[in-house]
Design goal:
This protein is of the alpha/beta class. 23% of the residues lie in helices and 35% in strands. It has helices at residues 53-63, 72-76, 123-129, 147-158, 197-207, 222-229, 244-249, 251-254, and strands at 3-4, 16-17, 24-30, 33-39, 44-51, 79-82, 86-97, 100-113, 137-141, 164-168, 176-177, 180-181, 189-193, 212-215, 234-240, 262-267, 271-277. Strand 3 (24-30) and strand 4 form a beta hairpin.
Length: 280
C-alpha cells in the first residue's frame, strides 16, 4: 500500500512511499530530480516526480516556517530541525562573512532525516554499563547507524534511576515543541534545547544538578567535557566513527576520550558491535 509521507510539511505531499514508514531513514530532495527515499538498510529508490527549483524553495520556506531570518543561525550550520525531531540538511551556495559561513542561498537540495523512537533499543547497553551506577559513555558510529535513537532511549532508561539533562542542540533527541518533548525521554530528564553543547553543559552543571548529561555529536567541546568530569556528573555523548580505532584517533574525540569510563560502537542500525571499558 502506498503511504503519504507523514511529516509536518504540506509542500512535499507529492512524495509517495511504498514501504512502511518505520523503514525510512531519509528523504532526499534535489532540484530537477525526483525525491529519493533512503531505507534504513541503505537501499535507495525514487519516490516522486522531479522537484523544480521553485518547489524546492517552497519546501525550504515551509521548513523555516516562512521566516528564514528566524533560522539564520541553524541555516549557517547547514540544517533546520522540524517538528517531530526530523533534521533537514541543506545544500546550496554558501555565503561567507568574517571567514565563517553566514548563510546558504540558492537552495539546491534538502535531506530530511527521519527521526525514529524505538523503545527498548538501549536496554542491552543500559544493563551492561549503567545498571549499578552512572558512568560516562562515548558512543561512536557512522552516519545513520542509530546513535541518536539509542541516546534517546538511553535517556529514558537512565531517568528511571538518575537525574538526567539532555543538551539537545538540534532538537533531535527530545523533539521539543513549546516546552514539551515529542519523544519519551524519561520522567526525570530535563532538556536544554537549541544551545551549543559547551554552553548547555556548563548551564546544566550550574543550575540543574544532573547526575548524567546526554548530548549528541560532540566536536570541539573538550573544555566543557573536562569541566563535567571534575564536577561529579557523568556525560554520555556520541561521535562519528566507524570503529574504536577511528574514535581513538580522530582529533576531536581522542582529546576527550580520557574523560569517559566506557566507549561503545554502534553498527547496523542500533546494534552494539564493540564495548571498551577504560575504567570502572
Amino acid at each position: 500500500m502506498t503511504e503519504t509521507l507523514k511529516l509536518p510539511l504540506a509542500s512535499i505531499s507529492k512524495i509517495r512511499i511504498e514501504k512502511p514508514l518505520s523503514s525510512v531513514a531519509e528523504i532526499r530532495l534535489r532540484s530537477g530530480r525526483p525525491a529519493v527515499c533512503v531505507e534504513t538498510s541503505g537501499k535507495m529508490f525514487p519516490c516522486s516526480e522531479p522537484f523544480c527549483a521553485k518547489e524546492i524553495a517552497e519546501v525550504f520556506a515551509e521548513i523555516c516556517r516562512y521566516s528564514v531570518y528566524s533560522f539564520e543561525h541553524d541555516i549557517a550550520r547547514g540544517f533546520v530541525t522540524i517538528n517531530g525531531g526530523h533534521r533537514v540538511g541543506i545544500s546550496g551556495m554558501c555565503v561567507y562573512k568574517n571567514e565563517k559561513v553566514e548563510t546558504i542561498r540558492d537552495i539546491s537540495g534538502l535531506n530530511i532525516r527521519i527521526a525514529h523512537e524505538i523503545k527498548g533499543c538501549a536496554d542491552g547497553l543500559f544493563e551492561m554499563i549503567f545498571s549499578d551506577k552512572p558512568r560516562s559513555l562515548l558512543l561512536g558510529g557512522a552516519a545513520m547507524s542509530g546513535k541518536t535513537t539509542i541516546l534517546r532511549d538511553l535517556s529514558r532508561r537512565l531517568s528511571e534511576k538518575y537525574r538526567v539533562t539532555v543538551i539537545d542542540t538540534r532538537g533531535e533527541i527530545s523533539a521539543m515543541i513549546k516546552g514539551t518533548p515529542s519523544f519519551d525521554i524519561g520522567l526525570n530528564t530535563d532538556v536544554l534545547c537549541g544551545c551549543e553543547k559547551t554552553d548547555g553543559i556548563l548551564m546544566a552543571l550550574r543550575t540543574l544538578s544532573p547526575e548524567i548529561i546526554v548530548c549528541d555529536e560532540i566536536g570541539d567541546d573538550e573544555k566543557a567535557i573536562e569541566q563535567c568530569a571534575f564536577c561529579g556528573a557523568k556525560i554520555i555523548a556520541s561521535a562519528h566513527a566507524g570503529d574504536y580505532s577511528e574514535l581513538s584517533k580522530r582529533p576531536s574525540t581522542s582529546a576527550v576520550l580520557q574523560y569517559f569510563d566506557c566507549a561503545a560502537i554502534v553498527k547496523d542500525r542500533g546494534n552494539i558491535s564493540e564495548i571498551h571499558v577504560m575504567r570502572d
